[in-house]
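Hi there, hope your week has been kind to you so far. Thanks so much in advance, here it is:
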Amino acid sequence: KVNGYPRFGWVDILRFQHFVEAVAQKVLPCRFLYLENEKQLFAETLTLNWDFRALGRCWFDGSRINLSPYLMIYPLPYIDMVILHELAHLRYPHHRATFWKFLSQLLGEDAKTATKNCYMILGDRNKSYRYLMEGFRWVDSCFKKKQKRLTKISS
Protein backbone atom coordinates (compact mmCIF):
# COMPACT_ATOMS: atom_id res chain seq x y z
CA LYS A 1 0.00 0.00 0.00
CA VAL A 2 1.61 3.26 -1.17
CA ASN A 3 0.01 6.59 -0.22
CA GLY A 4 -3.33 4.87 0.16
CA TYR A 5 -3.31 3.28 -3.33
CA PRO A 6 -3.31 -0.50 -2.86
CA ARG A 7 -4.08 -1.64 -6.41
CA PHE A 8 -2.31 0.76 -8.71
CA GLY A 9 1.24 1.87 -9.00
CA TRP A 10 2.01 5.24 -10.51
CA VAL A 11 2.87 3.55 -13.84
CA ASP A 12 -0.64 2.05 -14.05
CA ILE A 13 -2.21 5.39 -13.21
CA LEU A 14 -0.10 7.09 -15.89
CA ARG A 15 -1.10 4.50 -18.49
CA PHE A 16 -4.75 5.00 -17.65
CA GLN A 17 -4.33 8.77 -17.78
CA HIS A 18 -2.74 8.55 -21.26
CA PHE A 19 -5.49 6.21 -22.46
CA VAL A 20 -8.25 8.53 -21.21
CA GLU A 21 -6.49 11.52 -22.79
CA ALA A 22 -6.17 9.77 -26.17
CA VAL A 23 -9.88 8.89 -26.19
CA ALA A 24 -10.84 12.40 -25.05
CA GLN A 25 -8.82 14.03 -27.85
CA LYS A 26 -10.89 12.11 -30.38
CA VAL A 27 -14.34 12.28 -28.78
CA LEU A 28 -14.69 15.60 -26.92
CA PRO A 29 -13.85 18.03 -29.77
CA CYS A 30 -16.33 16.26 -32.08
CA ARG A 31 -19.08 16.31 -29.49
CA PHE A 32 -18.30 19.93 -28.62
CA LEU A 33 -18.50 21.05 -32.28
CA TYR A 34 -21.75 19.15 -32.75
CA LEU A 35 -23.38 20.86 -29.74
CA GLU A 36 -21.91 24.26 -30.67
CA ASN A 37 -23.50 24.07 -34.12
CA GLU A 38 -26.77 22.63 -32.86
CA LYS A 39 -27.22 25.36 -30.24
CA GLN A 40 -25.53 28.17 -32.21
CA LEU A 41 -23.23 29.12 -29.32
CA PHE A 42 -19.59 29.42 -30.28
CA ALA A 43 -16.43 29.69 -28.21
CA GLU A 44 -13.20 30.90 -29.78
CA THR A 45 -11.16 27.98 -28.42
CA LEU A 46 -11.69 24.57 -26.90
CA THR A 47 -8.86 23.16 -24.80
CA LEU A 48 -8.53 19.79 -23.13
CA ASN A 49 -6.66 20.18 -19.91
CA TRP A 50 -6.25 18.07 -16.79
CA ASP A 51 -8.11 20.32 -14.41
CA PHE A 52 -8.39 18.68 -11.00
CA ARG A 53 -11.06 21.09 -9.77
CA ALA A 54 -13.72 20.92 -12.49
CA LEU A 55 -14.87 18.84 -15.45
CA GLY A 56 -15.48 21.99 -17.46
CA ARG A 57 -14.56 25.64 -17.25
CA CYS A 58 -15.49 28.71 -19.29
CA TRP A 59 -13.51 31.92 -19.39
CA PHE A 60 -16.01 34.71 -18.98
CA ASP A 61 -14.79 36.70 -21.95
CA GLY A 62 -16.03 33.82 -24.12
CA SER A 63 -12.61 33.18 -25.51
CA ARG A 64 -12.03 29.69 -24.21
CA ILE A 65 -13.74 26.64 -22.82
CA ASN A 66 -11.72 23.98 -21.10
CA LEU A 67 -12.93 20.39 -20.77
CA SER A 68 -11.24 17.79 -18.64
CA PRO A 69 -10.46 14.44 -20.27
CA TYR A 70 -11.91 12.89 -17.09
CA LEU A 71 -15.31 13.46 -18.69
CA MET A 72 -14.67 10.26 -20.64
CA ILE A 73 -15.50 8.09 -17.61
CA TYR A 74 -19.07 9.43 -17.68
CA PRO A 75 -21.97 8.52 -20.01
CA LEU A 76 -22.70 10.70 -23.06
CA PRO A 77 -25.76 12.51 -21.59
CA TYR A 78 -23.63 13.73 -18.69
CA ILE A 79 -20.83 14.80 -21.06
CA ASP A 80 -23.39 16.75 -23.10
CA MET A 81 -24.73 18.36 -19.92
CA VAL A 82 -21.25 19.59 -18.94
CA ILE A 83 -20.56 20.91 -22.45
CA LEU A 84 -23.92 22.69 -22.61
CA HIS A 85 -23.34 24.11 -19.13
CA GLU A 86 -20.08 25.67 -20.32
CA LEU A 87 -21.65 26.91 -23.56
CA ALA A 88 -24.44 28.54 -21.53
CA HIS A 89 -21.75 30.52 -19.71
CA LEU A 90 -20.89 32.21 -23.01
CA ARG A 91 -24.18 34.06 -22.68
CA TYR A 92 -24.54 34.16 -18.88
CA PRO A 93 -21.22 34.20 -16.98
CA HIS A 94 -22.86 33.44 -13.61
CA HIS A 95 -25.19 30.93 -11.93
CA ARG A 96 -28.19 33.18 -11.37
CA ALA A 97 -31.77 32.32 -12.35
CA THR A 98 -31.34 33.57 -15.93
CA PHE A 99 -28.42 31.15 -16.44
CA TRP A 100 -30.41 28.15 -15.18
CA LYS A 101 -33.43 29.12 -17.31
CA PHE A 102 -31.22 29.35 -20.42
CA LEU A 103 -29.48 26.06 -19.61
CA SER A 104 -32.90 24.43 -19.18
CA GLN A 105 -33.79 25.60 -22.70
CA LEU A 106 -30.55 24.11 -24.05
CA LEU A 107 -31.10 20.80 -22.27
CA GLY A 108 -34.82 20.59 -23.03
CA GLU A 109 -35.57 19.91 -19.34
CA ASP A 110 -35.17 21.62 -15.98
CA ALA A 111 -31.41 22.06 -15.56
CA LYS A 112 -31.30 21.92 -11.77
CA THR A 113 -33.39 18.74 -11.67
CA ALA A 114 -31.30 17.16 -14.44
CA THR A 115 -28.10 18.01 -12.57
CA LYS A 116 -29.41 16.51 -9.30
CA ASN A 117 -30.60 13.37 -11.14
CA CYS A 118 -27.20 12.99 -12.76
CA TYR A 119 -25.45 13.24 -9.42
CA MET A 120 -27.77 10.58 -7.96
CA ILE A 121 -27.36 8.22 -10.92
CA LEU A 122 -23.60 8.72 -11.10
CA GLY A 123 -22.93 8.50 -7.37
CA ASP A 124 -20.50 5.57 -7.69
CA ARG A 125 -18.79 7.12 -10.69
CA ASN A 126 -18.27 10.31 -8.75
CA LYS A 127 -16.50 8.25 -6.08
CA SER A 128 -14.36 6.70 -8.83
CA TYR A 129 -13.71 10.14 -10.25
CA ARG A 130 -12.51 11.41 -6.87
CA TYR A 131 -10.34 8.30 -6.45
CA LEU A 132 -8.76 8.82 -9.89
CA MET A 133 -8.21 12.50 -9.18
CA GLU A 134 -6.32 11.67 -6.01
CA GLY A 135 -4.24 9.13 -7.94
CA PHE A 136 -3.38 11.63 -10.67
CA ARG A 137 -2.53 14.28 -8.06
CA TRP A 138 -0.28 11.78 -6.31
CA VAL A 139 1.52 10.95 -9.59
CA ASP A 140 1.94 14.68 -10.38
CA SER A 141 3.38 15.36 -6.94
CA CYS A 142 5.82 12.43 -7.36
CA PHE A 143 7.04 13.88 -10.67
CA LYS A 144 7.41 17.36 -9.16
CA LYS A 145 9.47 15.96 -6.25
CA LYS A 146 11.59 13.95 -8.69
CA GLN A 147 12.18 17.05 -10.85
CA LYS A 148 13.25 19.06 -7.78
CA ARG A 149 15.71 16.33 -6.79
CA LEU A 150 17.14 16.18 -10.32
CA THR A 151 17.47 19.98 -10.40
CA LYS A 152 19.38 19.96 -7.11
CA ILE A 153 21.66 17.15 -8.32
CA SER A 154 22.41 18.83 -11.67
CA SER A 155 23.19 22.25 -10.17
